[in-house]
Write a structure and sequence with these properties.
single chain, 213 residues, nine-stranded mixed sheet, alpha+beta
């Protein structure tokens, strides 16, 4: 049976499983950083306050967890201290990614010379990690954050994506629109311009499935 305490405990467990604080999990999901604070779990008159189904859907998507995984946490199965598989995925910085030689034409990891990083997540065989460098992706992603990229995953309007151009530029933005002629990308940092890139100049585009602090 669902209970208020179990649902909030599952949110805490999910955050810890993916190496996040409760506020970090909220930020990753595009929510207010205080959304999961202890003080927000009760109303001013002391009655239990439940998280919305929308916020639950957003944290599941932001971490790449499955509904089954979250349900297991609600039911007390596989909490943060329990075993969960680690997967070693290739790790690159954005400058390396733009240098060439690390990807095939479809954006899949190729060749040798990767560093590896272990992540507590279910990742596809072709997934890899890009390490954020600089402040161009603030406030969503900070210097040192890892973006987990999954080539071949379906990409829809509003998805966060990594795009590499034929000129070797690699960027993380939000896909606003895609036509047969071009893609329109919205910058994560308002200080950086949005981009309208002709398809002939796009080498590949891959979806960011989750991010780790």
């Amino acid at each position: 049976m669902l209970s208020h305490d179990r649902v909030w405990a599952a949110i805490d467990a999910l955050a810890e499983r993916y190496s996040l604080s409760a506020s970090g999990l909220a930020r990753r999901a595009g929510l207010d950083s205080t959304a999961f604070n202890k003080s927000k779990r009760l109303s001013s008159d002391g009655r239990p306050r439940w998280p919305s189904t929308e916020s639950l859907a957003k944290i599941i998507e932001a971490t790449g967890a499955s509904l089954e995984e979250f349900t297991g946490l609600v039911e007390g199965r596989g909490g943060p201290s329990g075993p969960h598989p680690l997967r070693a995925v290739p790790l690159l910085g954005f400058a390396q990614a733009g240098a060439g030689g690390f990807f095939d034409d479809a954006g899949y990891p190729a060749g040798q010379g990767w560093d590896l990083v272990e992540l507590p997540a279910r990742t596809a065989e072709t997934s890899y990690a890009l390490k954020v460098q600089g402040d161009s992706m603030l406030p969503l992603y900070r210097n040192g954050d890892l973006l987990i990229v999954e080539p071949g995953a379906p990409v829809r309007k509003g998805d966060r994506v990594v795009v590499k151009t034929t000129a070797g530029e690699v960027m993380a933005k939000v896909l606003e629109r895609r036509t047969v002629k071009s893609i329109v990308l919205v910058s994560l940092n308002p200080a950086h311009p949005d981009r309208d890139i002709p398809m002939r100049d796009v080498e590949w585009m891959a979806r960011i499935v989750w991010a780790s602090q």
